[in-house]
Write a structure and sequence with these properties.
11 strands, alpha+beta, 172 residues, peroxidase activity, oxidoreductase, EC 1.11.1.24, 4-stranded antiparallel sheet
Length: 172
Amino acid sequence: MAQERTGAATFKGNPITLIGPELKVGDQAPDFTLSKNLVEDASLKDFAGKIKLISVVPSLDTGVCDAQTRRFNVEAGDLGDNVVVLTVSVDLPFAQARWCGAAGVDRVVTLSDYKTRSFGEDYGVLIKEFQLDMRSIFVLDAEDRITYVEYLPEMTDSPNFEQAISAVKALL
């Protein structure tokens, strides 16, 4: 049974339980298999040799998640070809594609944790009560070592964009 971190975060001030370990700077990032669409998956090795900014959101169809993903889409344009920005949510791949098309988001790779929620468990962001992934940011170097992590204490708060981008730029 996966580790539970009760009260590790809140939703509108109410405690929620996160499932999985709290990853730290210096940890090797867990591999993952996430859905790109209904028939195609992506794993960490698909982005081998690149710096990865992983932006985790509960659902693209909410205001904070929308703003977070749009902001990282803009930032991705200035980070160069050696950086990939991944947005992970449990939204269905159809919904992710629809949202990206409507929002004009074209520099972020959206990946879905809807099938198994294993990314959420392995990265310590699966919200037990909602079966959504908690808002968080992970920056991985080219060897998949975590160099920056931000677990948001409140689900409706925005991440620290400047620190996350600075962590990526420090690896360039």
